[in-house]
Amino acid sequence: MPFAAIDLGATSGRVILGRVGPDHLVLDEVHRFANTPVRLPTGLHWDVLALFRESLDGLRLAARAGDGVTSVGIDSWAVDYGLLDADGALLGIPHHYRDSRTEHVADRVRDDIGPQELYGVTGLQHLPFNTVFQLAAARDGAQFAAARTLLMIPDLLTHWLTGAIGAEETNASTTGLFDARTATWAEELLGRLGIERGLLPPLRRPGTHAGTLLPHVAAYTGLPADTTVVTVASHDTASAVAAVPATGPHFAYISCGTWSLAGLELDAPVLTEASRLANFTNERGIDGTIRYLRNIMGMWLLEECRRTWEQRGEGLPLRELLAAAAAAEPFAALIDPDDPVFLTPGDMPARIRAFCHRTGQRPPETHGAVVRCILESLALAHRRTLREAAELAGRDIHRVHLVGGGSRNELLCRFTADATGLPVVAGPTEATALGNILVQARAHGAVGDGPDGLAAMRALVAATQPLRTYEPAGDGRAWDAAAARLAEFGTARRL
Ligand code: LRH
């Protein structure tokens, strides 16, 4: 059966057609487009209309691809939202989470609700751009006053495709307004934050039907009007984790793209003070699972370096950069990827050099040395995060699944295996789209349902997608020494 996934990432979007049967799972990317944020006097925004138009064009291509489209599912990055007025019109242009307007807002919210209490209910890691802080920044504005409905980005697109209103729960769990213990909106907190309960739509679970296409959407795309939009795990990371080809409980995952999301899959949230202080999050996965993880700055560091170099006419193809990194001196310079100085867009090589200066290291000069510094530092951050997660959750890790675009980066996979001392299974690259498609397929009975439905989905991924295992090798003691060096930098405040 064919299913269409609209998969929106922070730098690009895709429409992917997935064909699923009992023993096959084949993806066909029918449309890819850039996701380019736009800076306006009001800050950094997403071009949501362009994203919607490109999604429609992708669906149109999917409709023509030959064997039809059983249903459509949408996932995107988390935390960002659009506001609708009483007539259902979009108020303003959704902000990008990397916009700086939330910079000091968290402190204000903390004055109203203490961080312990906030964590005890939501279990959410502190990130300056969590929806709760974005809303606090927006609260005194004219748009917020007129707002009647808040829709997360995939829910907004679902609304524009179908007219339906709802809040998908894996993405709702990234807002800071969701109760991790009960999987409902955190009603009591809302009142104290000055957020009307009615602003938040009813929650919906992955695997349920959101609605059917509006007539003008069906006419434009060429899809039948009774085509359903299935609610998938609309937070891209939740979709990616659903497609991790793991068996048993003793695995960790790293969903590695713009961000590295590294952690464990648990049955219940960990809401301890130690967990809060280590800044682990308890986001919702499919089937009521908990994604116990921490955000690591990820390939963003490399992407921003490449953007800076390209602007200066010094750009090199990724292959050449990675070859230069492989040949560069090991552990010459290290950064803490979780230092907030790396969060916002801008001259990344300069910020990396400044970090090295500040910590008494010789700054990397060549492109190869910068890339080596990034990849070794990311591998060390993977190690630190997974070890802390294992300890805080009381769960042994026997292997690491590294999925997403970063799984194509051999050097990063090898460094991660060496740094963690664990086998790293790399792939699938398209984990997010696979998770999106598999949840749709399951809703249509095309993969095993029932209590072990998630295991059946993962078994299908393992049986059909190319995977590569990196056994830990190299000099373990050199990685231990590098980890100790990183620990000494004492980054004042992590993400
Ligand atoms: C990854 C991601 C991540 C969020 C961030 C905003 O794309 O969804 O899980 O923390 O974007």
TrEMBL record:
The keyword Aminoacyl-tRNA synthetase does not apply. The keyword rRNA-binding does not apply. GO terms for cellular component: cytosol. One of its GO terms (biological process) is rhamnose catabolic process. Residues 252-443 form the Carbohydrate kinase FGGY C-terminal domain. Residues 5-241 form the Carbohydrate kinase FGGY N-terminal domain. Keywords: ATP-binding, Disulfide bond, Kinase, Nucleotide-binding, Rhamnose metabolism, Transferase. SUPFAM superfamilies: Actin-like ATPase domain. GO terms for molecular function: ATP binding; glycerol kinase activity; rhamnulokinase activity. InterPro entries: ATPase_NBD, Carb_kinase_FGGY, FGGY_C, FGGY_N, Rhamnulokinase. It holds the Pfam family FGGY_N. Belongs to the FGGY kinase family. This is Rhamnulokinase. It comes from Actinacidiphila glaucinigra.
